[in-house]
Design goal:
- With 316 residues, this protein is α/β, with parallel strands linked by helices.
- It folds into 2 domains: 213 residues, DHBP synthase; 83 residues, Threonylcarbamoyl-AMP synthase, C-terminal domain (Rossmann fold, 3-Layer(aba) Sandwich).
- The protein has 11 helices and 15 strands.
- The strands form 2 sheets. An 11-stranded mixed β-sheet has the order 1-8-2-3-7-4-6-5-9-10-11, sandwiched between helices. Strands 12-15-13-14 form a 4-stranded parallel β-sheet, with helices on one face.
- Strand 10, helix 8 and strand 11 form a beta-alpha-beta unit.
- Helix 1 crosses helix 6.
- Bound molecules: threonylcarbamoyladenylate and magnesium ion (MG).
- Threonylcarbamoyladenylate binds next to strand 5, strand 6 and strand 10.
Length: 316
């Protein structure tokens, strides 16, 4: 397959409506979209990414009035969070409409819905005129793509169109919140933090081991975000000399000469989060063996950043 890279939203939408696969930019990471109501097209997403079939997809919409097309009822908790945070980097898990193909929902009976806060994404979704099922546009298990070039590296020849856009401004995937129970449960932390959600819905909590066992959170079981280099979470930059193929990212600057690979010292946690996956891919290209990532506190977006770092870290 010949992958077309374009800024033409109409071409991208026409391709999707004909059953094609279209990667598109969003504020979080780039997505890989197919028409949510064309099961054959959705199946092609799983093939292109080599994604396990039991991991459901998020359905993306451009207008609130599309929610009714994919969801059976809107729970009260979801209504409150939609009013506060849509459009934005937030996915709400709600009861799925019975007409939604089971390949989208992994037969869970629920669906994750999201309205991106991104001009190109919204123009594309509007032009599609229908709900778009889309996971992140990486090969399964790899860091999510935050640039169109990263999508190209993972999926060239496997998707029909890559809709070009600027680098993603958030850089980590959306916060996923289960709204099917009494109180909202965060299945995946993101830039909309536990603290932000509690201001609007005080009963919101993080998922725990029991939720994972009850299959509430299918995505958390799989291997994630791993570049080819080893990722190691450290408390502070290394003081040891004489290592080769080492890279570093963290808020604290390392002493000179202790890392021979790329070094990145973001000014704050949001910038760290924005740059992380791109840094992983840069290190891969530089042939780095080991990427040391400094831990951060769990406040605000720190929780999402630590979640990704811990999942990317190779068991030692
Ligand atoms: O920011 C994002 O969310 C990006 C952009 C493209 O929107 N998308 C994304 O999709 O990260 P993906 O497939 O890489 O991650 C979706 C996560 C997975 O952990 C999946 O298990 C979970 O959301 N999820 C989706 N539908 C679900 C459902 N019905 N119940 C529970 N978890 C669900
Ligand atoms: Mg993903």
């Amino acid at each position: 397959m010949n992958t077309i890279v374009t800024q033409d939203v109409e071409l991208a939408a026409a391709t999707l409506k004909e059953g094609g696969l279209v990667a598109f930019p969003t504020e979080t990471v780039f997505g890989l979209g197919a028409s949510a109501f064309q099961p054959n097209a959705v199946s092609r997403i799983f093939q292109a990414k080599n994604r396990p079939q039991d991991n459901p997809l998020i359905v993306h919409i451009a207008h609130r009035n599309q929610i009714a097309e994919v969801c059976e009822v809107i729970p009260e908790a979801a209504r409150v969070l939609i009013d506060a945070f849509f459009p934005g980097p937030l996915t709400l898990v709600v009861p799925a409409a019975p007409t939604l193909p089971s390949v989208v929902t992994a037969s869970l009976g629920t669906v994750g819905i999201r309205m991106p806060d991104h001009d190109v994404a919204n123009a594309f979704l509007r032009a599609c005129g229908e709900p778009v099922a889309a996971p992140s546009a990486n090969r399964s298990g790899r860091p999510s793509p935050t640039t169109w070039e990263a999508v190209m590296d993972d999926l060239d020849g496997r998707v029909d169109v890559i809709l070009r856009g600027d680098a993603s401004r958030v850089g980590l995937e959306s916060t996923v919140v289960d709204c099917t129970g009494k109180e909202p449960i965060i299945l995946r932390p993101g830039s909309i933090s536990l603290e932000d959600l509690k201001m609007v819905h005080p009963g919101t909590r993080m998922s725990d081991a029991a939720d994972v066992v009850s299959h509430r959170s299918p995505g958390t079981r799989h291997r994630h975000y791993r570049p080819e280099a080893d990722v190691v979470v450290v408390s502070s930059p290394s003081k040891t000399e004489g290592r080769s193929g080492y890279a570093y990212i963290g808020l604290e600057s390392p002493e000179k000469g202790l890392y021979d690979g790329p070094i990145r010292v973001p000014g704050d946690v949001s910038t760290y989060a924005r740059d992380l996956f791109h840094f992983f891919r840069t290190c891969e290209k530089a042939g780095i063996n080991r990427i040391e990532c400094q831990r951060v506190g769990l406040e605000g977006m720190g929780r999402a950043l630590m979640d990704r770092l811990q999942r990317a870290a190779s068991p030692e």
